[in-house]
Amino acid sequence: MVEIFSAENAVIKHIKQLSRRKYRDKHKEYMIEGVRILCDALENRQRIKYAVFCDALYRAAGGENLLKQLAEQGVKVYHTTEKLYGEIAETESPQGIMAILPRIEMCLEQLPKKKNSFYVLLDRIQDPGNLGTIIRTADSAGVDAILLTKGCVDLYNPKTIRATMGSIFHLPIFMLEDSQEGISFLKNNQIKILTTSLDAVSYHYEVDYRQDVVIVVGNEANGVSSTWMDAADALVKIPIPGKAESLNVSVAASIVLYEAVRQRMR
C-alpha cells in the first residue's frame, strides 16, 4: 500500500483529469467508485489498474473485505486522506474507494453470434442516466450485446457507469464510428433491424422478435436518425392512449425489450 498526502501527487492529478471525457479518450481509462461496483468489477474479472481509498472505507459496509479482495488479486492500492479523496470523488456521499480501469474496445467482428441473437442499438442517446439505465435493462432482458452510435453520451461518464449498477461489466458494448458500416454488417449477417418511431404503423407487440434482431432506440429529442430509419426492416411504436406526447427513452426501451423477452420465452 502506498500513501498519498499531496494534491500534487501524479495519481491524484491523473484521476482529476479522468473526470473529463477528452482525457478518458486520451488515456483510454475510466473511473469507478463505490464498494458495490468495485466488487462487481472483481467478480466479473475486470482488469483494475489500481485503487485509491481513504479511511471512510472502513465505515462502509463491506469495505474491509473489499480491501482484502483487492490485495488477494494483486491490485495496487493507494491510501489517501479523506480531504484529498473528497477532491477527486465523483459521488456526493463517497464510500471512500475508487478504481481506475482500462477501456475495452472491440470491433464488430467480435459481436457475439448465436441462434436468435438479441441486440440493442442506441442512436445518439444524450443523457448519461438514460444510457446507463438502458444498459441495465438490456442486461436484465438477456440482450447479447449493445451497440452505440457516434454522438451518444460517453459510455464511461461517471453518471452513466453509476446508472448501469454494474451491468457495464455483464455484456459487450460496441462503439459504431460509422453507422453505414454498422448497417452493412447487420444486413450481411441477416440481423433484422427493428426501429422505434412515433410514425410507425405497427405497434411494438405486433412484430416478431423470435429471430436474430437488433432493436434501435433513438435520441431523446429527435428520435432515431434517418440513416437508421431508412435501414429498418420494420418500424414499431408504443401505444400512448393518454395525453403525453412521448415516453422517456429508457422507459420506451424497457417496454419494447420486454415485449421481445415475452415472445422469446414462449
From TrEMBL:
Q: Which Pfam families match?
A: MRM3-like_sub_bind, SpoU_methylase
Return the InterPro entries for the record.
Answer: Alpha/beta_knot_MTases (IPR029028), MRM3-like_sub_bind (IPR053888), Ribosomal_eL30-like_sf (IPR029064), rRNA_Methyltransferase (IPR051259), SpoU_MeTrfase (IPR001537), SpoU_subst-bd (IPR013123), tRNA_m1G_MTases_N (IPR029026)
Q: Which GO terms describe its molecular function?
A: RNA binding; RNA methyltransferase activity
User: Listed GO cellular component terms?
Assistant: cytoplasm
Keyword Lipoprotein found: no
| Residues covered by the RNA 2-O ribose methyltransferase substrate binding domain | 31-107
- Could you tell me the keywords of this UniProt record? Methyltransferase, Transferase
Q: Please list the coiled coil stretches.
A: none
Q: Name one GO biological process term.
A: methylation
| Gene3D superfamilies listed in its UniProt record | 3.30.1330.30, 3.40.1280.10
Q: Does this entry carry the keyword Transferase?
A: yes
Q: Which family does it belong to?
A: Belongs to the class IV-like SAM-binding methyltransferase superfamily. RNA methyltransferase TrmH family.
Q: What is this protein called?
A: RNA 2-O ribose methyltransferase substrate binding domain-containing protein
Organism the protein comes from: Geosporobacter ferrireducens
